[in-house]
């Protein structure tokens, strides 16, 4: 597998992928005068987890629908499994698993009957009981299999939806906010399972509002207001958000103004420094790994006693806010 | 696993799903079975096949030639239909009572009936009512017609009775005529021409008197063959006999005629008098009521059974219920999938429109058949509705009604945007079926152009075919059955095209 990895963040440019299972080029979808998705381009490598993050209404679901053939693009091109999704054959559709954002199965059927229905939709053989049981055990619903769907909680419905998506073992999964309403423990279990599926060669295209979940992905697309801001690895996205790696630098005595000015002028310090305390600074550098020894050397030269120097990994919430800030500031 | 087998599995997913969803609503199933049965059962018990009686107030002017006794007498002929509520001479008060609902009808008796008739005009009985139901209005008109018919019959009967009383006198005149004819013959044979002339004149007087009186009465008797046309269109025999009698009597007075010729005429006169006398005797023996109303009707059916009103409606109720059930279930089926969002799931899945429709058709056909079987069993074995025909044909028609109705429902479902829209469309189909399928009134009462709507509704075919099989015991009309199935095929094709657009076309 060759994941795109770039030290230089790529904005509005598709990451070059050797073996892509999904390829979107200048995808645009308009509903009347309203543009839901605008000029979106990206590629998803086979056997990877592609996270699509963005706030509510950013066009994530519309993009998923464009990729699954529910919508046809107003402009642009999309290729999934080497075909146009709008013209998928039955065999190609059988390789997809799709979990919509909302529960769309039947409230008057039991958990088991709903899952059985989903399995039948994909033409699974008559002896599928074991497979159904495994799917329900995975989402921890096996004990509730006889309950009517209308009598289970919202979180359980999400789990049932996920089980229904996974039950036929699809090659390519489209999961639209699968972890919404799921408790953190089960959410972690889901992500463990997604990684396991990836190891088995499955590709997962997953949307989420939990930007922290982006760390679980191989590639992340950040979407806002219908536009894809960038596609990169989680690390690459952080790098892009702040203009480099972040290093927390803490000394034994308080920083004076002169030391701070000198620090800012160092060649490996890329952008502004952030004072996080009287004796600590957060510095943005090109590469944290090479900048750390150089920083230690500079402190020694300046007779500054260093307490700690360590790379700081900002949360994806912070990264996301940083990424969309220019858009917000520009209205 | 082959594609065909996968298709069967996909279609079966809908079959199971629909059946489970229905079975999760036992009250609905119970209502579908017991509701129509109970309605028909109570209707069968509660319906009484008697015409409505009207409380009728009569308005009679004091100077009217028709007495209260006459009115009551006239009313006896229709006394089951008219409840005598009294007589008044105040028309305004009578009409006020009618408006207040104290009586159902007011009959105003004509004031100077005899004077009107003498002016060669019909006297009018005016019947007032305050019905707004067109059927009841027709019934009241019919009742008025019956009442006046009874009055007319009473008047004619009086004439006939008077004629029969007078017939005794006419018989005497005929006997005299006969005696004068015999005396004339004897006078001629004895050569007494003067006596012969005298008897001839007496005979002519008898014949004139008889002609005037007898002709009218015996004409009543002779009007029957005339009405039937059995006399070949000739003048009626009584009048013809009387004319012959008068001509022959007058010819006897012709002095130029020879003796033999006059005797021959006397023979004819004798014969005509005997003939008239015999008819007069016959006239006297016939009841006056029969003379004025010689015919009555009797209806006899060659149908195998004579079903009661609830029996007659049972096949129509069954057809209507099954159509409504199938249309409603199918109409809600797809629109719900779309509103819930399942359609999006279907669009991404390998499911085809044909598989989805096939699964839904089969499940609803099975469900409808079970309902039909239970309901039919209740109708036949509990309500004792006749089942004279072949059960297999009956089943075939039920299946065809369900199949075609499902086609209507699926087409509605695909074009509807919401549940309530689908329900509204289904109700319109139900309403159309009640009015146009022959459920309430016979199809013959509709204009041929309007009957096109009837022939688009499965209930129309179902009602006719099920009645034929169950109540007449005959084989189904294969043209009708073929037409029903053909409509079903067309609807299935349309539904499939619409469904395909819904499932496989991107938006």
Secondary structure blueprint with pairings:
The complex is a heterodimer of chains A (331) and B (507).
Chain A: E1 20-31, E2 34-45, E3 49-53, H1 60-68, E4 75-80, H2 90-93, E5 96-99, H3 111-121, H4 129-138, H5 154-166, E6 172-176, H6 184-199, E7 203-208, E8 219-224, E9 227-232, H7 234-242, E10 245-251, H8 257-265, E11 274-277, E12 280-285, H9 288-301, E13 306-312, H10 316-329
Helix pairs in contact in A: 3-5, 4-5, 7-10
Chain B: H1 3-23, H2 26-46, E1 54-59, H3 68-76, E2 82-88, H4 91-99, E3 105-108, H5 113-118, E4 126-128, H6 134-190, H7 193-228, H8 237-252, H9 259-285, H10 288-292, H11 309-340, H12 342-348, H13 353-382, H14 391-415, H15 419-436, H16 451-454, H17 458-472, H18 478-504
Parallel strand pairs in B: 1-2, 1-3
Antiparallel strand pairs in B: 3-4
Helix pairs in contact in B: 1-13, 2-11, 2-13, 6-7, 6-9, 7-8, 8-9, 11-13, 11-14, 11-15, 11-17, 13-14, 14-17, 14-18, 17-18
Descriptive notes:
The complex is a heterodimer of chains A (331) and B (507). By secondary structure, chain A is α/β, with parallel strands linked by helices. In chain A, 33% of the residues lie in helices and 26% in strands. Chain A folds into two domains: 20-239, 3-Layer(aba) Sandwich (Rossmann fold), CATH 3.40.50.300; 243-329, Alpha-Beta Plaits (2-Layer Sandwich), CATH 3.30.70. Chain A has ten helices and 13 strands. In chain A, helix 3 (111-121) runs parallel beside helix 5 and helix 4 packs across helix 5. Chain A is elongated. The relative contact order of chain A is 0.14. Residues 1-14 of chain A have low confidence and may be disordered. Chain B is elongated. Chain B has a four-stranded mixed sheet with strand order 2-1-3-4, with helices on both faces. Chain B is mainly alpha-helical and 507 residues long. Chain B has 18 helices and four strands. Chain B folds into three domains: 10-46 and 309-504, no CATH class; 54-130, D-Maltodextrin-Binding Protein, domain 2 (3-Layer(aba) Sandwich), CATH 3.40.190; 165-292, Four Helix Bundle (Hemerythrin (Met), subunit A). The interface between A and B is medium-sized, with 34 and 29 residues.
């Amino acid at each position: 597998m060759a994941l795109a990895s770039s030290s230089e963040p790529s904005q509005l440019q598709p990451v070059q992928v050797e073996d892509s299972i999904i390829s979107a080029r200048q995808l645009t979808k308009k509903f009347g005068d309203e543009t839901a998705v605008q000029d979106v381009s990206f590629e998803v490598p086979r056997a990877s987890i592609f996270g699509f993050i963005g706030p509510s209404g950013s066009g994530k679901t519309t993009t998923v629908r464009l990729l699954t053939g529910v919508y046809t693009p107003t402009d642009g091109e999309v290729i999934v499994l080497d075909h146009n999704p709008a013209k998928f054959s039955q065999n190609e559709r059988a390789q997809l698993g799709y979990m919509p954002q909302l529960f769309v199965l039947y409230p008057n059927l039991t958990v088991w009957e709903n899952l059985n229905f989903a399995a039948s939709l994909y033409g699974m053989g008559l002896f599928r009981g074991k497979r159904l049981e495994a799917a329900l055990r995975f989402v921890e619903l096996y004990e509730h299999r006889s309950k009517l769907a209308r009598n289970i909680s919202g979180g359980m419905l999400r789990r049932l939806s996920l089980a229904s998506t996974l039950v036929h073992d699809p090659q390519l999964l489209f999961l639209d906010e699968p972890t919404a309403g799921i408790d953190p423990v089960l959410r972690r279990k889901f992500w463990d399972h997604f990684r396991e599926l990836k190891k088995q060669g499955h590709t997962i295209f997953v949307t989420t509002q939990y930007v922290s979940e982006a760390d679980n992905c191989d590639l992340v697309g950040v979407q806002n207001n219908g536009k894809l801001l960038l596609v990169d690895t989680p690390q690459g996205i952080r790098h892009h958000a702040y203009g480099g790696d972040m290093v927390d630098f803490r000394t034994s005595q308080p920083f004076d103004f002169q030391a701070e000015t000198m620090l800012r002028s160092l060649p490996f310090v890329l952008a502004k420094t952030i004072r996080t305390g009287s004796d600590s600074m957060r510095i943005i550098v090109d590469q944290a790994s090479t900048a750390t020894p150089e920083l230690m050397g500079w402190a020694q030269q300046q007779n500054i006693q260093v307490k700690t120097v360590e790379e700081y990994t900002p949360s994806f919430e912070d990264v996301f806010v940083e990424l969309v800030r220019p858009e917000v500031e520009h209205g | 696993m082959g594609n065909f087998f996968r298709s069967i599995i996909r279609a079966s997913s809908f079959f199971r799903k629909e059946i489970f969803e229905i079975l999760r609503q036992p009250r609905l199933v119970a209502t579908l079975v017991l509701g129509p049965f109970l309605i028909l059962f109570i209707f069968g018990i509660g319906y009484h096949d008697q015409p409505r009686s009207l409380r009728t107030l009569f308005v009679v002017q004091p100077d009217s030639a028709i007495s209260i006794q006459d009115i009551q007498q006239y009313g006896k002929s229709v006394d089951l239909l008219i409840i005598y509520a009294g007589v008044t001479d105040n028309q305004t008060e009578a009409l006020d009572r009618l408006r207040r609902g104290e009586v159902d009808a007011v009959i105003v008796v004509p004031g100077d009936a005899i004077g009107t008739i003498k002016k060669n005009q019909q006297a009018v009985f005016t019947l007032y009512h305050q019905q707004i139901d067109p059927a009841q209005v027709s019934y009241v008109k019919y009742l008025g017609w019956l009442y006046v018919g009874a009055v007319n019959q009473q008047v004619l009967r009086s004439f006939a009775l008077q004629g029969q009383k007078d017939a005794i006198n006419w018989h005497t005149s005929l006997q005299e005529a006969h005696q004068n004819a015999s005396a004339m013959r004897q006078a001629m044979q004895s050569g007494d021409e003067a006596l012969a002339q005298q008897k001839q004149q007496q005979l002519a007087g008898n014949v004139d008197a008889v002609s005037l009186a007898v002709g009218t009465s015996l004409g009543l008797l002779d009007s029957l063959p005339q009405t039937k046309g059995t006399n070949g269109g000739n003048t009626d025999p009584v009048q013809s006999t009387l004319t012959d009698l008068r001509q022959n009597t007058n010819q006897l007075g012709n002095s130029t005629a020879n003796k033999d010729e006059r005797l021959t005429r006397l023979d004819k006169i004798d014969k005509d008098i005997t003939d008239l006398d015999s008819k007069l005797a016959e006239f006297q023996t016939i009841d006056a009521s029969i003379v004025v109303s010689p015919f009555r009707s009797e209806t006899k059916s060659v149908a195998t059974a004579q079903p009661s009103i609830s029996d007659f409606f049972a096949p129509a109720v069954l057809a209507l219920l099954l159509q409504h059930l199938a249309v409603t279930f199918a109409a809600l089926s797809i629109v719900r999938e779309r509103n819930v969002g399942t359609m999006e799931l279907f669009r991404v899945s390998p499911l085809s429109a044909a598989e989805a429709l096939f699964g839904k058709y089969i499940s609803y056909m099975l469900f409808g058949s079970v309902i039909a079987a239970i309901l039919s069993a209740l109708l036949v074995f509990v309500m004792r509705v006749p089942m004279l025909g072949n059960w297999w044909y009956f089943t075939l028609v039920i299946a065809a009604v369900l199949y075609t109705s499902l086609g209507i429902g699926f087409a509605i479902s695909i074009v509807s945007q919401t549940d309530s829209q689908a329900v509204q469309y289904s109700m319109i189909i139900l309403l159309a079926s009640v009015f146009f399928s022959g459920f309430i009134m016979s199809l013959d009462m509709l204009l041929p152009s309007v009957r096109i709507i009837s022939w688009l509704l499965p209930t129309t075919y179902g009602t006719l075919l099920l009645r034929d099989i169950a109540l007449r015991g005959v084989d189904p009309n294969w043209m009708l059955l073929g037409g029903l199935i053909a409509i079903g095929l067309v609807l299935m094709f349309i539904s499939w095209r619409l469904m395909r657009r819904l499932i496989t076309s991107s938006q």
